[in-house]
Design goal:
This is Uracil-DNA glycosylase. InterPro entries: Uracil-DNA_glycosylase-like_sf (IPR036895). By secondary structure, this protein is mostly helical. It has one domain. It is built from 2 helices and no strands. The longest helix is centred in the C-terminal third of the chain and has 20 residues. The chain is elongated and about 35 Å long.
């Protein structure tokens, strides 16, 4: 959504720090 893109543009750290951490957690959960 456009709102989400605006939010991400204001919070670039979210994409660089939080997203990879979430992806790692999801991968760990899926491996179980």
């Amino acid at each position: 959504s456009p709102l989400n893109n605006i939010w991400l543009a204001k919070n670039p750290w979210f994409e660089t720090d939080v997203v990879p951490a979430l992806q790692k957690r999801v991968a760990d959960i899926l491996k179980k």
